[in-house]
Amino acid sequence: MAEPCKCLTSRQKEILSLLRKGLTNAEICKALNISANTVKVHLANIYKILDVSNRTEAVSVDIEESNENSAVDEEIHIAFIDGKSLDGCSPAKELYLSIIQALNRYRLFSINESEEASAPATYQVKISPVLNKENTFFVTLYKGKTADILWSESLQVNANDDFELMGTQVAMQIFRLLFHSAAQTYEQNKELFPRWWYATSFANVKIDNICRDSFDEIINELEPLAKAEKSPIFVPYTLVWAYYVAITESWVNAKEYVAKIESLACAAMRKNPYSVYAQFMMAVYNMAIGNKNGAVPYLRQILADLPQCVRSRRILVQLCMFAGQMDEALHLLNEGSRFIKGPEGVLLHSTPRAFIFFLQGKFAECEETLNQVLMFHPESTLARLMLIACNNKRGNFKESEKHRQVFFEYHPNFQKSDLEQILKGIPSPTKETLLDSVSNVFTL
Q: How far apart (Å, rounded) are the C-alpha atoms in residues 380 and 384?
């Protein structure tokens, strides 16, 4: 049965019709008198709307012709402005197309190329040359059809650059900035449309920062949205992650919330089995029930489709560490660090790197790394417990006791059973080492 929410623009329907007739991209260009790049952008948007991965899957989807109940207005539109002005500079054009391609991998945005500011655009991106600086360009992100600049950075672009990598780096910066901007906007006005975008942005920012005070608000907002008929899959994805963090942080009853994760994950896989967000939900469900090995194939598939997915990479690194696969964990960390520019990437991977140091017996390096994490996230459960373990291993028992007291200021109801839940599924030798190293935490 056709689903009303799977509605395309008239141009997208034209292209899908030609796909069904077996036309190649080049033949579609000639038939519609559009460029190859425009065809690629339209195809990426079609795949996103239909939640498929390729043209074979796209042509098999039954599309309802009516535009009633269209989800178009529910989308986040990103307009790339004045790309034709870069036609004279091949490196800049390559970067421009690589950024579009990397953003399309998220399957969250409707991305279009335009010669000027677009009225319906939620955000706009423009790449423009820097005066008197050869091969140097500004990448600027605007909010809506306004002069409000959310971010701008100059990049030097040369013919020998790795444009796919650069495009991914820029796309990740844009993605994080969109999230934080939407989260801040949501805090000021909770009635903005599309509500799912602002609410999930707020939720992801707060959950990643382990904000217990925001958890109830997040659940009260997202649970009704997740039940809506046309709810984007990013809503239950965010909700599942919020549930899992709440379980690991001991904010909720684990059994009750594991059941909620199971319900959302199974529903997502039935409806969108090829979606990276459905696969992530299944990975989280497997971790929640202690089947950490069962989560690994899902996470590897996500990184194959969306290599810039920081959350999936971070979890997979932890699972490799718990399994004693240190070389693979370091490989994943180093691969992920390429995508994130500057000190932010170092901080993002600090906790798993510290864990590797701990298991390798490099306790001084571990302690130094954890102190960096706790400077920004003093409430972090795992980082604080690892720091206690480090100090115990080094014989710094006074320092260990100080951190134990700070830990319970943030987590007054934390029990040994909560730690065992976090470590559930970890091989016994590693698990016992960790439990023994923090045994003083639970000593009255």
A: 6
Query: Which of the listed residues 167, 188, 209 is the one where a domain comes to its end?
Result: 188
Domain match, 124 and 171 both: yes
pLDDT at 116: 64
Q: By C-alpha distance, which of 298, 315, 293, 344 is closest to 245?
A: 315
Which range marks the domain in which residue 43 is found? 1-70
Query: What residue has token string 């207005």?
Result: 73
pLDDT of residue 70: 37
pLDDT at 355: 81
What's the pLDDT score for residue 67?
39
Give the chain's domain count: 3
Residues 173 and 216 in one domain: no
State the pTM of this model.
Answer: 0.70
The phi-psi region of residue 132 (left if phi > 0; otherwise alpha if psi is between -120 and 50; otherwise beta) is left
Q: Which of 145, 160, 188 is the last residue of a domain?
A: 188
- Name 253's Cβ contacts closer than 8 Å, sequence gap at least 6: none
- Which residue has tokens 């599924």? 425
Q: Within this chain, do residues 288 and 150 fall inside the same structural domain, yes or no?
A: no
Which residues in the chain come in under a pLDDT of 50? 1-6, 65-73
pLDDT of residue 198: 94
User: CA–CA distance from 415 to each of 95, 216, 251, 406, 420 (Å)?
Assistant: 51, 22, 12, 15, 9
